[in-house]
Amino acid sequence: MVSASAFSGTRELDDICQRRLKLAAFQFHQAAERLYHCALLVCTFYTPHVHNLGFLRTQAERIDMQLVDAWPRERREVRARFEKLKEAYVKARYSKHMAILRHAIELNPQKTDHIVREVT
Fold this sequence. Notes:
The structure is a single chain. By secondary structure, this protein is mainly alpha-helical. It has helices at 10-44, 53-63, 76-94, 102-106, 108-119. The model is unreliable at 1-7 (pLDDT under 50).
C-alpha cells in the first residue's frame, strides 16, 4: 500500500511542469510574433508596434495568403490553440490561474515552422 508521503513531491513537480509549459507558451508567442513582424517588414518595409498576435496575423495574411495555412480557421481545435497562444503573452507571465496542457504546446513548433518556410 502506498502511503500519503509518497505523493508529497507531486505538487511541487506539477508546479515546475506548469511553469515550464507557461514559459514554452510565452516563447512560442514571441516566435510567432517576430515571424509575423519579419514578414511584414520584408514585404512592406513597415510593421506596427503591437504585440497583438491576431492583428499581426491578419496583416501578414493580407500580404501572403499562404500564411493562412499556418493557423487555418476551419477547425475549432486549431482556433482554440491560437487563442491560447494569444493569451500566453500576458497570462503565462502573470496569471496564477492559467493552466496549459502539454498537447496544446506540442503543435506550436509546426505552426511557427510553417510561417518560417513562408517568410524565407
